[in-house]
């Protein structure tokens, strides 16, 4: 096997800790790789005025696969104040390096698996008949379009002439907003293209087919948002009929879906949605399987095969400087499993998932979130596992 090079981007705060522990776990699982470090995050914003330096982009361009911890973001004014004195008053404006990565590499496919582990005390439970308690097994994988829609960045406040006049050609705009002074209008667009809508749909259907899921659910709002959601659902119908007749196609509205997922989450398999609704529905499912300590994501460009893997959680600054780190590394380890799948190391990924599952089911080693404690430095004294102890327990199962 030729040794791979992985770009590791620890970023800020707990991103550094969970990434280091995960690399230790990957090594124990037998994954051989060289890691090169990519600079990203707050430190580079403050020192260089750029949280995503060009050298990091070049590294990803070269090696294609990146494991990313988390970054810290702050509001515009605060960000400007934290620049080193030499960079103050240069008119630098902070923008998210994650969004920057997605846009630069066209990482249009975002996949967020949400699977419950047996024995996780954070699993969703509900009341069944005759006062029974049910704990449904959840296995949902959300495919979120990652570059278009409401996060496409095409927006205006007090829109310029060309935009305003174009809007005024729409009868609904004239009727609903025609009397509103222009400076009181803000517009964010929701643009879907056929190319990228088809790509996210096909990624979802192919994943369902390859991994034995019986349904794909389009989770949008086609009855109200007719053009974009409507287009996505119509295209899904065509694609399903032509190429995936063995997979059921379901259609839910995002609002109803958020209710259904607390009633019958076990009924859903692969779910596909645009950018905003995909973000919402994946957080909803993540809450059912244990929340931020368990939620992972993969962002991929199927053409160039560039992919960035990251946990859903952020840098959790309040836990970053603990002498003994207490945060749960499982989200980052799950993220690494998605990377292994992507590069064709499926057996290794399964082995690692099995080790995680065994530790959770055994229930002897649990981080503070799994013990429903509030995160304080003394949780380890009180019986919670540290980040490192959780990683050690998983490594012990691998050996
Ligand atoms: P966060 O995800 O960093 O933390 C929220 C809370 O979730 C924490 O205080 C902690 O209680 C819990 N938590 C997070 N990760 C955990 C883990 N691995 N194990 C156990 N508990 C965990 O979100 P927050 O506080 O809203 O944002 C903090 C910073 O992170 C901000 O600067 C924000 O902009 C940034 N952020 C970055 C993201 C990324 O890099 N992808 C995503 C979300 C936020
Ligand atoms: Mg989110």
Which helices and strands, and how do they pair?
Layout (H helix, E strand, L loop, with lengths): L3 E8 L2 H15 L4 E5 L4 H7 L5 H10 L1 E6 L5 H6 L15 H9 L3 E7 L10 E2 L5 E2 L4 E7 L9 E3 L3 H7 L3 H7 L8 E3 L5 H17 L4 E6 L7 H16 L4 E6 H7 L9 E4 L1 H14 L7 E5 L6 E5 L5 H4 L9 H13 L3 H17 L24 H12 L1
Parallel strand pairs: 1-2, 1-3, 3-14, 7-12, 10-11, 10-12
Antiparallel strand pairs: 4-7, 4-13, 5-6, 8-9, 13-14
The protein binds 1,4-dihydronicotinamide adenine dinucleotide and magnesium ion (MG).
Description:
With 399 residues, the protein is of the alpha/beta class. The chain has three domains: 1-111 and 298-399, Isopropylmalate Dehydrogenase (3-Layer(aba) Sandwich); 124-152 and 191-288, Isopropylmalate Dehydrogenase, CATH 3.40.718.10; 155-188, no CATH class. The protein contains 15 helices and 14 strands. The protein has a ten-stranded mixed beta sheet with strand order 2-1-3-14-13-4-7-12-10-11, sandwiched between helices. Strands 5-6 form a two-stranded antiparallel sheet. A two-stranded antiparallel sheet has the order 8-9. The longest helix has 17 residues, at 194-210. The mean pLDDT is 96. The structure holds 1,4-dihydronicotinamide adenine dinucleotide and magnesium ion. The site of magnesium ion has 2 residues, from helix 11.
Number of domains: 3
**Are any ligands bound, and if so which?**
1,4-dihydronicotinamide adenine dinucleotide, magnesium ion
Which strand-content bin applies to the residues?
Answer: 15-25%
The CATH H-level superfamily of the largest domain is: Isopropylmalate Dehydrogenase
Judged by helices, strands and strand pairing, the structural class is alpha/beta
Helix content: 40-55%
Q: Tell me the number of strands.
A: 14
Which residues form runs of ≥5 with pLDDT under 50? none
**What does the main sheet amount to?**
10 strands, mixed
Radius of gyration: 22 Å
Order of helices and strands: EHEHHEHHEEEEEHHEHEHEHEHEEHHHH
Per CATH, the architecture of the largest domain is 3-Layer(aba) Sandwich
Strand order in space, largest sheet? 2-1-3-14-13-4-7-12-10-11
Q: Per CATH, what is the topology of the largest domain?
A: Isopropylmalate Dehydrogenase
| Cα shape | globular
